[in-house]
């Protein structure tokens, strides 16, 4: 599946819901996230998607239209190339933010309690057949 | 890209005299009443008097410092306006001081503003330098960029690990005059904390060549000197080496991370109010074995602990990695016996019923402890529960 298509996002959401380790580690979590993939390399325009997360479940993933406002507790932004490194587990999400490769806006204290859950989201991605750009 | 952060380190006998050369005349000393009663505060203030420096003292730090203590000390610090903040004490004092340092420099900040993504904190030190003078040889807090502060959430005390690279103290002064007075039980608990920091840092995600070197040396020093200090607390060579080992281990885990021993130890300590060193030292053996049992062949634990055993001369270089790594577990048990350290949770006055009643809370807390995600093997809920149950009984981990 081609990355960042609706089909791929649906599969990503399903993979999160199919990951029991995510359910266990995020059973307390409440808060949606917007991911912003900035133009870089083969990606020539910005792509944003909303990841709904509640009590260990992914409640939905959908692309945001250009200029569309959406409410989320966190926004994680970065160039396409760095997102690919995260998807391939070549870059840890937290280390990516610490080293400035990704930028995060939101309640950091809450997020620091969710490092395991964040790791399991990335682990879920390993089960999605992904065709990179 | 990776990084290695460290304070300026002054160590050995009479290291305290280095205070004379540090610029600044108004010192805000943060300590606790025990340190004052032991006469350590007087050792420091006598030196400050001699060097012509003024000072004011906050002596209200308590073990596992609560947020309210940090806020109280902050108000006194803001009122005194020091150019040096001196943390004299163990990890609780140093962690409190880090929080006070941040809120002195940024008075509008609260504890939640101390986190790894707050770039303002790189600028710490404009109003005051932070000098850490550890009086115990364990936490390594003098070398780390984390501050553990407790907060009550829905009736459960949770240890918040607030961290940012800017929180590394400006100076760490390691004078063995302070730890030489530690009683043997505290010597052992803190020594086990050093061991847990360094053994976990060796395999944690984030390990690097700098942290590996320091962790390996710290482990060697603990195995050599902890039994000596346990038997003879006034052995200054043992005290000096353990004091240095604590800071080496602090540097190792601060730059390379800790993992499950601390995850599970933090939660055990928070729920049962048990000393940190006791909890993490006790869990160390079980989480080490859990990682060695990892069916995932990408787990580096066996290779790393095998190399450790060979470097420290515990086994032959041509022994298999599996055999050599298991010797590390034998050596741990041997050390526990030599220094009278508890080998299972039931030895630290926690009943089976209390453990079972709190197991769900413990595991929920484990999932919310940032160090847990740094492990080479990530436990499921059932694994966490069984690790606690096995550690309670003292059973070998067979899963």
Overview of this protein structure:
The complex is a heterodimer of chains A (133) and B (399). Chain A is an alpha+beta fold. Chain A has helices at residues 6-17, 20-25, 80-87, 93-98, 108-112, 115-125; strands spanning 33-38, 47-54, 57-63, 74-79, 103-105. Chain A has a five-stranded mixed β-sheet. With 399 residues, chain B is of the alpha/beta class. The radius of gyration of chain B is 20 Å and the shape is globular. The A-B interface holds A 20-21, 24-28, 92, 94-95, 97-99, 104, 107-109, 112-119 and B 1, 112, 115-118, 160-163, 205-206, 364, 367-370, 372-373, 378, 380-381.
Strand-helix topology:
The complex is a heterodimer of chains A (133) and B (399).
Chain A: H1 6-17, H2 20-25, E1 33-38, E2 47-54, E3 57-63, E4 74-79, H3 80-87, H4 93-98, E5 103-105, H5 108-112, H6 115-125
Parallel strand pairs in A: 1-4
Antiparallel strand pairs in A: 1-2, 2-3, 4-5
Chain B: E1 8-11, E2 26-30, H1 33-37, H2 40-50, E3 54-58, H3 67-80, E4 84-89, H4 91-105, E5 129-134, E6 146-153, E7 156-163, E8 171-174, H5 184-203, H6 209-231, H7 236-256, H8 260-272, H9 276-292, H10 301-311, H11 321-338, H12 352-367, H13 381-393
Parallel strand pairs in B: 1-8, 2-3, 2-4, 4-5, 5-8
Antiparallel strand pairs in B: 6-7
Helix pairs in contact in B: 3-4, 5-6, 5-7, 5-9, 6-7, 8-9, 8-12, 9-11, 9-13, 10-11, 12-13
């Amino acid at each position: 599946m081609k990355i960042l298509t609706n089909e791929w996002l649906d599969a990503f959401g399903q993979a999160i819901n199919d990951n029991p380790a995510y359910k266990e580690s995020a059973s307390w979590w409440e808060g949606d996230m917007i991911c912003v993939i900035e133009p870089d390399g083969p990606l020539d325009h910005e792509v944003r998607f909303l990841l709904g997360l509640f009590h260990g479940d992914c409640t939905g993933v959908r692309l945001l239209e250009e200029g569309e406002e959406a409410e989320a507790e966190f926004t994680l932004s970065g160039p396409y190339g760095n997102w690919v490194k995260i998807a391939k587990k070549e870059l840890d999400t937290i280390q990516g933010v610490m080293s400035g490769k990704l930028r995060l806006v939101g309640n950091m204290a809450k997020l620091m309690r969710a490092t395991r859950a964040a790791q399991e989201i990335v682990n879920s991605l390993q089960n999605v057949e992904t065709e990179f750009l | 890209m990776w990084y290695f952060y460290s304070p300026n380190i002054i160590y050995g006998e009479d290291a305290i005299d280095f205070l004379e050369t540090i610029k600044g005349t108004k010192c805000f000393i943060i300590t606790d009443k025990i340190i004052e009663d032991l006469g350590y505060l007087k050792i420091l203030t006598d030196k400050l008097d001699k060097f012509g420096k003024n000072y004011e003292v906050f002596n209200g730090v308590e073990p596992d410092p609560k947020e309210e203590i940090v806020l109280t000390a902050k108000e006194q610090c803001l009122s005194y306006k020091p150019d040096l903040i001196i943390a004299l004490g163990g990890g609780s004092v140093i962690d409190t001081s880090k929080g006070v340092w941040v809120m002195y420099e940024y008075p509008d900040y609260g504890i939640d503003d101390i986190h790894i993504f707050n770039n303002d904190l790189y600028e710490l030190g404009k109003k005051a330098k932070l000098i850490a003078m550890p009086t115990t040889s364990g936490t390594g807090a003098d070398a780390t960029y984390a501050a553990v502060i407790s907060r009550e959430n829905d009736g459960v005390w949770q240890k918040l690990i607030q961290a940012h690279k800017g929180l590394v103290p400006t100076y760490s002064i390691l004078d063995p005059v302070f730890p030489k007075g530690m009683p043997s039980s505290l010597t052992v608990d803190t020594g086990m904390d050093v061991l847990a920091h360094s053994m976990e840092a060796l395999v944690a995600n984030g390990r690097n060549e700098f942290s590996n070197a320091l962790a390996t040396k710290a482990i060697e020093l603990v195995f050599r000197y902890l039994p000596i200090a346990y038997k003879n607390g006034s052995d200054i060579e043992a005290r000096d080496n353990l004091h240095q080992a604590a800071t080496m281990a602090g540097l190792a885990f601060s730059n390379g991370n800790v993992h499950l021993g601390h995850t599970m130890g933090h939660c055990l300590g928070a729920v049962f109010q048990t000393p940190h060193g006791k909890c993490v030292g006790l869990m160390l053996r079980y989480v080490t074995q859990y990682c060695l049992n990892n069916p995932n062949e990408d787990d580096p634990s066996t290779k790393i602990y095998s190399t450790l055993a060979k470097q420290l001369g515990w086994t032959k270089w041509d022994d298999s990695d599996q055999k050599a790594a298991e010797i590390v577990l034998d050596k741990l048990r041997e050390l526990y016996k030599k220094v009278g350290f508890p080998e299972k949770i039931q030895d630290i006055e926690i009943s089976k019923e209390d453990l079972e009643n709190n197991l769900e809370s413990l595991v929920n807390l484990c999932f919310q402890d940032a160090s847990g995600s740094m492990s080479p093997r990530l436990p499921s809920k059932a694994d966490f529960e069984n690790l606690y149950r096995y550690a309670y009984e003292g059973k070998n981990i067979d899963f």
